[in-house]
Design a protein that fits this description.
single chain, three-stranded antiparallel β-sheet, alpha+beta, globular
């Protein structure tokens, strides 16, 4: 809709620099305050040189991610600082995105993921046995990364990749998504002006490229002997100019999304269990009843119903992709408010998932919200932990399989004892991560 179709008005502006300064250690809190003041209204955040629109109401989310999706592109804030890492494949827009999605979509269908689940279960089970030392203090994010990264790499990037290369990829991805966090809040600073984290980010990208490009060469030399993600991409793009860069971009985006989303979300499991003993007791009881002493198999997954509800609620309150900026390619009108071309639109599942108009007791952790049938009256765009519309994430089913296997795989053997007292706060990154230093001790479950 053009600005001239109906009478329009300008969005209300909220001061944002001072709240951001006040919450410098936990910037997400400044966004929470702005969302509460907006009350679902489309508002502008006054950040000095930048005045993005804050989008929280599900109707407005639906307009941007579905109804008028072609007008809102993935560029500008958030996307530009990460462009050297993510490239121009499945996480871009236009023809590059469409071509990549056509190639990759078959790899992430429920049927194909289900065919990999038994192998996934075996890999995770072996990694838990090899990694977890009962009674030893463990950094939560490092443990989950140690379990997730090799699993995804083995499943999608081929079985021949070395452990040394896997061990290089995990910290490089971690640095890639966190090192430039300051540019999330200072997107008006030109890329040519250095900011803290830029040098580490460039090193991380070089490391990833040093691992990924040889995988492409290896897959091309093999021909079609193996059918993994790299082989599929090489085969699909064998006649395209600049194929290696396109394949690299898709490999990095898919691997990064599959691992970073899972590591981030599953790092929240343990402080949430500690903070909600009644919920934890139900999770433990179900795992004990369904899985017993393990190992977890594909046959167990359909019976882990409460655990699935737990994971759904986990990504409601702590969605890994907490912020989803878009840039308006042309003029638009949203709920009577002018949106000029070039405007930055800040969508946030984290904030929309906490709107009291759409969620009863929104800050309470309650898995029963996701009991079968409880979503019938919910606005479709009140819950979008994996984005929505044409650009919806390809991997929610993969994530859920990973989550059930990993959580049940740990809990059928151990019980977590948190070493970090008090509530866990989110820290600023391109994904919603728990505060640094979160640790726990895993002790043998009773009877093990």
């Amino acid at each position: 809709m053009s600005l001239g179709d109906v009478p329009s008005r300008r969005a209300r502006s909220l001061p944002f620099l001072r709240p951001l300064t006040r919450h410098a250690r936990i910037p997400v809190r400044a966004f929470e305050e702005a969302s509460a003041r907006a009350g679902g209204e489309l508002v502008r955040l006054n950040m000095g040189p930048l005045r993005p629109y804050l989008v929280t109401h599900p109707d407005h989310v639906q307009h941007i991610l579905k109804n008028n999706q072609p007008n809102y592109v993935r560029s500008g804030m958030f996307w530009d600082p990460l462009a050297p890492l993510l490239g121009q494949g499945i996480l871009s827009d236009g023809e590059g995105w469409a071509a990549s999605r056509k190639i990759l979509q078959p790899v992430f269908t429920a049927r194909y993921v289900n065919s990999l689940t038994e192998r996934m279960a075996q890999i995770i089970d072996a990694l838990i046995d090899a990694t977890v030392v009962p009674g030893r203090r463990t950094n939560v994010a490092e443990l989950i990364s140690t379990l997730i990264h090799p699993t995804i790499v083995r499943l999608f990037l081929g079985a021949t990749i070395s452990d040394a290369d896997i061990n290089r990829l995990a910290p490089a991805y971690d640095t890639g998504v966190t090192a430039r966090s300051i540019r999330l809040l200072l997107p008006f600073v030109p890329q040519r002006f250095p900011l803290p984290g830029d040098r580490a980010f460039r090193r991380a990208v070089r490391t990833i490229d040093e691992v990924v490009y040889p995988r492409i060469d290896n897959a091309r030399a093999r021909g079609d002997e193996e059918v993994d993600l790299v082989s599929r991409l090489v085969s699909a793009r064998r006649h395209e100019p600049g194929a290696d860069k396109l394949i690299r971009d898709d490999m990095v985006a898919i691997h990064g999304a599959a691992t970073e989303t899972s590591v981030t979300a599953l790092s929240w499991v343990w402080p949430v269990l500690a903070a909600h003993p009644d919920v934890a007791a139900k999770v433990y009881a179900e795992v004990e009843r369904v899985v017993g002493g393990g190992p977890v198999t594909v046959a167990h997954l359909p019976e882990l119903t409460y655990l699935k509800m737990f994971v759904d609620e986990l990504v409601r309150l702590y969605p890994p992709g907490w912020i989803l900026p878009r840039t308006a390619a042309g003029n638009d009108l949203i709920d009577g408010i002018e949106v000029p071309a070039g405007s930055t639109m800040v969508l946030s599942p984290y904030l929309t998932h906490r709107l009291p108009d759409f969620w009863d007791r929104p800050l309470d952790f309650d898995p029963e919200r996701f009991a079968p049938g409880n979503d019938r009256s919910r606005h479709r765009y009140a819950y979008f932990p994996f984005a929505a519309g044409p650009h919806v994430c390809l991997g929610p089913h993969l994530f859920m399989m990973e989550a059930l296997l990993l959580i049940a795989g740990i809990l059928c053997r151990f019980r977590p004892a948190p070493d970090t007292p008090g509530p866990t706060a989110p820290r600023l990154a391109s994904t919603l991560r728990p505060s640094r230093g979160l640790s726990m001790t895993l002790v043998l479950a009773e009877g093990r």
